[in-house]
Amino acid sequence: MTRINMMPIISMVSAVSLFALTVQAQAEGLSSEMSFKVVEMTEDGTETLVERDTVRPGDMIEYAITHHNGMDADLLGLAVAVPVPTGVTYVPGNETSSLPANFEVQAEMEPEIPGLEWSALPAFRTVIDATGAKRREPLPAEAIEAVRWNLDAALSSGEAALNSYRVVVN
């Protein structure tokens, strides 16, 4: 049975990006903390989240990002972006936010436009076949490189918000 050490996966995900569009945040006033747990099923079919140091291919991991607003002002227009680490695949439909938010994924969706694009789900990409013909297809989960929540509500001064998403180990 193959076991994977979680440290490389954790360090890749530690690049949580926070953007405040209407208030310029100071590093000491706005902070994020990321944690993970492995999703396990009990004998009765109930999900439980457990702490483990290793994972195996097929294991599901839930990442949780907590954001603390230690500033004197509410933060409006906050966007939280987190990469999907190498070695795992994003699992659509399990993302959550404690504040109202628009959720998006990032991937290469238009081959004629360099770089990655953001899209709400369901997302589609353009594929160019060997003859040069273009067709649209659903974006496969394994093509998703990052996820983002654009918060619709302010993160109030002194408050915390929570976002989470799940991946499966390849």
Summarize the structure.
With 170 residues, this protein is mainly β.
Describe the structure.
With 170 residues, the protein is mainly beta. Helices cover 4% and strands 48% of the residues. A hairpin with a 5-residue loop joins strand 12 and strand 13. The chain is flat, with a radius of gyration of 18 Å. The model is unreliable at 1-15 and 19-27 (pLDDT under 50).
Produce the secondary structure layout.
Elements: E1 4-5, H1 7-13, E2 17-20, E3 30-41, E4 47-50, E5 54-55, E6 60-69, E7 78-83, E8 88-90, E9 96-97, E10 101-107, E11 117-120, E12 124-128, E13 134-138, E14 146-151, E15 160-169
Antiparallel strand pairs: 1-5, 2-7, 3-4, 3-6, 6-15, 7-14, 8-15, 9-15, 10-11, 10-14, 12-13
Q: Please mark out the parts with pLDDT under 50 across 5 or more consecutive residues, or reply none.
A: 1-15, 19-27
User: What's the quaternary structure here?
Assistant: single chain
The shape, in one word, is: flat
SSE string, helices as H and strands as E: EHEEEEEEEEEEEEEE
Beta-strand level of the residues, as a percent range?
A: over 45%
Q: Using only CA atoms, what is the Rg? A: 18 Å
**Tally of helical runs:** 1
Mean pLDDT: 86
Distance between the termini: 14 Å
> Which structural class best describes the helix and strand composition?
mainly beta
Largest sheet: 6 strands, antiparallel
The helix fraction, in percent, is: under 10%
**Number of β-strand runs:** 15
